[in-house]
Amino acid sequence: MEKQYLLIIDVPGIKDYVFGTDRLVEIRGASALLDKLNRKKTESFLQNKLGDSAVKRVFSNGGAGQFVITAKKADLENCVRELKGFFAKKSKGGLRLICGIADFSEENYAEALTHAHIELKKEKEEESIIPCTQLHTGYLQECKSCSGMAFKLDDYAGEKRVLCAVCAEKVEYGTKRGLWKEFDKHCEEKGMEAERPRTFEEIGDRCRARKGYTALVYADGNAMGKLVKKIGSREHFKFFSDTVDDSIREACHEALYENCRPVQGKIPANILLLGGDDLLVYLSADTAFPFALDVAQRFEEKTEEKFSGNSFFSELLQGKGLTISLGIAYGKTHTPFSIMFSQAEELLKSAKKAGSQDKMRGEYYAPTYIDFHLSSNYNQSKVSDSRKSHLLLHGTRPVKLYQKPYSLPDACELMDHARNLTEAGIPNTRLKRFGYAPSLGKINGTLECLKLYTRTSKAQRKVIWKALERFECMPNIPWKEIRDEKGETLEATTVLSDMTELAGFMRK
User: Fold this and answer.
1) Nearest residue to 100 via CA among 112, 88, 87, 116
2) What is the DSSP letter of 38?
3) Strand order in the sheet with 98-103
4) Nearest to 81 by CA among 105, 55, 69, 99
5) How far apart, in whole angstroms, are the C-alpha atoms of residue 237 and residue 59?
6) Residue 84 near residue 46, CB atoms below 8 Å
7) 3-class DSSP state of 133
8) Could you tell me if 323 and 222 are in contact, meaning their C-beta atoms sit under 8 angstroms apart?
9) Calpha distance 147→23 (Å, rounded)
10) HSE (side-chain half, CA atoms, 13 Å) at 508
11) Tens-place pLDDT, residues 163-178
């Protein structure tokens, strides 16, 4: 007997699969393959097996999916088994699909979703044990990307590598347009050719402020989990998912077009992950901060506009849009991608924490915050270790040589002031001395700043004054005193290091 069922799918270990390598072609290939299987192939596979009318998509993006299926239970279970095999076959064993099934009716959507997630969790935790380890001997070569068993010799961008079947498939998809296709179409409509770079080095070479420097921008939605729990109908879930996915894609493409124009014939950026409420883009260092601010603003504006026509979400969000938090890891081109990704992830968590503690936060709303870090200035791979070792002065009261993370309005003004510093004609050596001055200590840092400040021209002093005054660092140059309710100083911070660090990536 045919019944209605709710089918939810998920692909565990996405980060390990997509980012388990330091090669651009493999990363974007893995992301493109996952995106194709998730957004396009899953629905068509189910329809081919069960019939077009039997399959209704709620959403399918970001490595997950939700479908309402009308079929016999046995037919659905057989189809799901074949779908799992399809994922494994297409990814050469690199991707594993897990599913949850529950009885469905429009009246019990929330209950069905809960039961389906329980089944999904059970399958995830009951992962089959690999009976034996892979055999490695001196007679067989290992994959140069993941240390699996060698499969074929690959030649991409002049680099020859012996790869396993999984990594070779990633390269195969990495040579196709993949996630770049939609951005390419967006640029064509604007009359611009969007040729993408082939390697990380090509992106770094196109950094016009400091050649060889790149950045990884990682964004994720705020308060999405809380909001999803309030959704009680399939229609609302579909509308919410489509709105988030469409908005993040549109915001990314528009922000890339505005801030990453071609340099030497190629766009100095590459989309590594895009879908759901996730965004990961690798760019030249001079374009990263403007891009991050732009994509955050556009995402909030687009979701606010789209939700305004839906009374349920408009009331829940009190007329506001959704927001994202961002982490930006700066580094040199040769910085291993794994380190930059780890730092971007850490910075994203820091930004999310700041947003959750902001006074403007609501039950289903958290303001956008941005945190950034330049790895080449320090010798630690973890951001927290770098800040603890190099950007924190211990004494009777702690002194932080930074004010990160920043809210979106503050980040916009920080970028404007950093750009003004470079355009004012202040020599780079003096700017660097300004940035280094706070590390001399509370008293010596003040004396050094005053000495540098008085030696600049009148016009340059005005620019410096405005920048420090905006972040409350002028009355006690260059420090901002954080006080408690009684007026006692808890700690001191400064914006100088952040601003001069950012100024280094501002094009004159």
Assistant:
1) 116
2) I
3) 55-61, 64-71, 3-10, 98-103
4) 99
5) 8
6) no
7) coil
8) yes
9) 14
10) 10
11) 999 999 999 999 998 9
pLDDT in tens, 369-398: 999 999 988 888 999 999 999 999 887 788
Strands 489-493 and 399-400, sheet pairing = parallel
Give rounded-to-5 percent helix, strand, coil for the chain.
Answer: 50, 20, 30
Within a 10 A sphere around the Cβ of 508, how many other Cβ atoms? 8
The amino acid at residue 321 is: G
Bridge partner residues of 325 (DSSP): 220
Apex 160 CA angle, 158 and 163, nearest 5: 140
How do beta strands 369-374 and 324-332 pair?
parallel
What does DSSP assign to residue 229?
H
Token pair of 179 as six digits: 């996630």
Instruction: Read off the pLDDT of residues 281-295 as tens digits, 9 standing for 90 and up.
Output: 999 999 999 999 999
Of the candidates 446, 503, 501, 439, which has an alpha carbon nearest to the alpha carbon of residue 475? Answer: 446
User: Please, how many CA atoms are within 13 Å of residue 174, restricted to the half-sphere of its CB?
Assistant: 25
Pairwise CA distance, residues 117 & 113, whole Å:
6
In terms of DSSP bridges, do strands 406-407 and 369-374 run parallel, antiparallel, or are they unpaired? antiparallel
**Length of the chain measured in residues:** 508
Single-letter residue type at 102: A
**Closest CA relative to residue 358, chosen from 415, 412, 407, 292:** 407
pLDDT for res 128: 57
